């Protein structure tokens, strides 16, 4: 088993990762940077290549500027590939990796999903209206990959199936048509996902989800799958008490390395397509905080109702602050909280400061 701590890139951590954050990472590379284009604001978008093998893998992170977990995991993976590990040497002998660690540097700077023109780059694969989208497409066409890894984060609201387990990591083999047919490219992606899931179950039993496969030809994964290239969507989700997503980062690192190992060692057909559909689908069953019996704190609440609170991620002084906002009030049966507060007695809550903030929010709310 890999000793992750040996490869974790310690210069980057937390949720706010922008182009400045990774400059020292670039300096560690043994291969030259490849300038593939510029962002709307003129920031260079760079890629780099690792390995000499015939099996070509293209991966990109931070297509959404506020989804930084996979960027951290990519640099951890780079450290592993530059190590003396036998597996790393095997992968680099059998594969050529083309890596874009940050496709949307403008969005990363201001911590937004969209680019600076307020365009979602993951909905621009067909129209190619933005320079970042064009840069990725041109690199895809020139590199001609055999596999694509589309690296993202997902919100804390997702559960792995209809369970009380968070979807800490989710995957998708995107559809390539409205009918969601299992094409040869889609089947390969499914088998790779099954391989990663098999590994992850040893670390996060029951916490792997399968992302919705509704077809949208404006999405990059659907487009590349239509073009016949097996494409996998990676989604970094919530691990208990890990809002900085440092544990999830490790799991994504392990997933990327596992997928590359399967590709490098020709083990794709060891896995069954049918097992892909055994991975539970993502459901939106989690609140960050679920407050039960709020009528104890405020008699205006109806008995039997709960308050579901979700955090809004706000950039403040180059750090992400998690601000609680009430998302829903009602019976909320079948929903779960990453933290659950039972209101029992207004005289003795004994909450920590963060819970006091939440409680103040409840006391002030009007139904």
UniProtKB/TrEMBL annotation:
Locate the active site: 235 (proton donor/acceptor)
What is an annotated GO biological process for this record, any one? proteolysis
Keyword terms of this UniProt record: Carboxypeptidase, Hydrolase, Protease
The protein's matches in PROSITE patterns, at most eight in alphabetical order, are given as: PEPTIDASE_M14
Claim: Hydrolase is one of the keywords in the record = yes
**Gene3D superfamilies in the record:** Zn peptidases
Per the UniProt record, one Pfam family is Peptidase_M14
Domain Peptidase M14 span(s) in chain numbering: 3-263
Any one GO molecular-function label of the UniProt entry: metallocarboxypeptidase activity
* Assigned protein family: Belongs to the peptidase M14 family.
- Can you say what this protein is called? Peptidase M14 carboxypeptidase A
């Amino acid at each position: 088993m890999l000793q992750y701590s040996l490869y974790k890139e310690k210069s980057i951590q937390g949720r706010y990762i922008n182009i400045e954050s990774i400059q020292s990472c670039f300096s560690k590379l043994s291969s030259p940077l490849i300038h593939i284009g510029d962002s709307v604001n003129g920031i260079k978008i760079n890629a780099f290549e690792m390995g000499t093998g015939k099996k070509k893998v293209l991966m990109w992170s931070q297509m959404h500027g506020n989804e930084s977990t996979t960027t951290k995991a990519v640099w951890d993976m780079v450290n592993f590939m530059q190590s003396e590990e036998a597996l790393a040497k095997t992968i680099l002998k059998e594969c050529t990796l083309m890596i874009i660690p940050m496709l949307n540097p403008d969005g990363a700077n201001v911590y937004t999903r969209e680019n600076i023109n307020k365009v979602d780059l993951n909905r621009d694969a067909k129209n190619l209206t933005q320079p970042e989208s064009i840069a990725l497409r041109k690199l895809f066409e020139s590199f001609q990959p055999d596999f694509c890894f589309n690296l993202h984060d997902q919100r804390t609201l997702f559960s792995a199936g209809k369970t009380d387990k968070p979807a800490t990591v989710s995957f998708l083999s995107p559809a390539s048509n409205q009918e969601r047919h299992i094409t040869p490219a889609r089947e390969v992606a499914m088998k790779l996902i099954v391989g990663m899931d098999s590994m992850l179950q040893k670390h996060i039993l029951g916490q792997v989800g399968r992302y919705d496969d509704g077809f949208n030809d404006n999405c990059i994964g659907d487009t590349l799958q239509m073009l016949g290239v097996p494409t996998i969507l990676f989604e970094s989700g919530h691990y208990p008490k890990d809002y900085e997503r440092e544990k999830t980062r490790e799991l994504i690192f392990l997933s990327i390395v596992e997928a590359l190992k399967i590709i490098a060692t020709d083990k794709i057909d060891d896995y069954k397509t049918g097992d892909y559909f055994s991975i539970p689908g993502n459901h939106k069953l989690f609140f960050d905080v679920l407050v039960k019996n709020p009528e104890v704190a405020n008699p205006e609440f109806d008995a039997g109702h709960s308050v579901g609170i979700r955090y809004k991620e706000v950039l403040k002084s180059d750090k992400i602050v998690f601000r609680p906002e009430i998302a829903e009030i009602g019976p909320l049966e079948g929903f779960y909280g990453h933290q659950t507060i039972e209101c029992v007695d207004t005289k003795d809550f004994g909450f920590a400061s963060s819970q006091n903030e939440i409680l103040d929010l409840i006391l002030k709310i009007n139904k």
